Amino acid sequence: MILNYEILTDISVNSLMDLGKLKQFEEESNLKINISALSRKFGVDRRTIRKYVDGYMKPTTRSRQTQFDDYYETINELLSNELKVFAYKSILWRYLVTNYGLKAPESSFRRYIRSVPEFNDYFIRLRQKSTKEPTPMRFESGIAEQAQLDWKESMTLVLSSGESIVVNIFVLLLSYSRFRVYRLSLQKTQDILLNFMSDAFVTFGGVPKEVIVDNMKTVMDESRTTYKPGKVNIRFQQFADDYGFKVKPCIGGRPETKAKVESPMRILDELRAYNGDLTYSELNDKLQEINNRENSRFHNSYQMVPVLGLDKEKDALAPLPADAIRRQYVIKTSKVTVNKSSMITVKSRQYSVSPKYIGKHVTVQCFDNQLHVHYNTQLIAIHNQSDTPLNYLDKHYIEIAKMTLPFDDRKIEEIAKDNLKKIGARYE
Prior knowledge:
Layout: H1 21-29, H2 35-42, H3 46-53, H4 72-80, H5 89-100, H6 106-115, H7 117-129, E1 146-158, E2 164-174, E3 180-185, H8 190-204, E4 210-213, E5 220-222, E6 231-232, H9 234-243, E7 246-249, H10 259-262, H11 280-296, H12 306-314, H13 323-327, E8 333-337, E9 343-346, E10 349-352, E11 361-367, E12 370-375, E13 378-384, E14 390-391, H14 394-404, H15 409-426
Parallel strand pairs: 1-4, 4-7, 10-14
Antiparallel strand pairs: 1-2, 2-3, 5-6, 8-11, 9-10, 11-12, 12-13
Helix pairs in contact: 2-3, 5-6, 14-15
């Protein structure tokens, strides 16, 4: 009997991956492979040689568990949450570090996010929605020469109660050290601006030579343009004179003029990651936590820790004005209780609120020659400051009358308005 064999005559074995070529030779020739010799040649165990001869192929990619895989479901849930917004990978990383105990470098976390298509797509979509601004020319300021002022305006956030609020964040930043002060407000009137600036100068420990501002109405009566110098309003100019700094308005439409303060605004997008998590008070605390963190960390972009830079800058700042001058710019906040007549008392004068707040504690702030009355975060009344003992808003008096008089709404309104006229006449 004649048997035909296909004999392999050209076998080159240069690595473990080549050993699989010997399998066919072994099966068809009935010759044994010298496993021991191959083991000595490659310096590996005989069992390893046998495994490769039998056809084992080393995988080209590794499938291994990483520390981030344990966070997959958490990350997926966070990025699927319609309330929360993680504008940058760094914000998501910091959120996991703070709230879920993640212990990993940000660079490793970024690589992981890029490796998971559904996560990476989330950030790609956000980048596509944002407008790419040209990078401004870099310039530096001397010690104590300059601060830059701005607001992050009309930022919609959701509290843990489900209430949606619109907040404004004040930022004043020293150009040399990049030490900054953030403050949160539901409004951005001139009195609030001056109060925040006064507070920021106290935090700095002095006043820089000039403050760069944009053409906000609380500062400028007339905007600065390429062809016009603009006009600072009288009250802000008086504030500047009292504190001893020069007002330097930007040309309209050129935010790059104050790029040092524009850039840190992106950091404040971190607050949107906490939508649905915090009360208004906790939101303030979170903002101060961000403020302290940014002032205390090393910034690669300008090679400085702001709080250490402030130590150098503080001695060169101009001194603060006297307490008597500073006090006139401070907004006083007080807590009062709404009495049974649906009135609050401020400086021996009574002002109305809705009767649904009877017995509740409300917050009163006096600025812009008005009383602003808040219940939690809700603005419930604004009264002009008055020397009259009793001060009613028509709608409040009508609400009170409806609780008292047994008439239809139209009749009650007539009676209420007539009685308000009599009250007014009595105190004229």
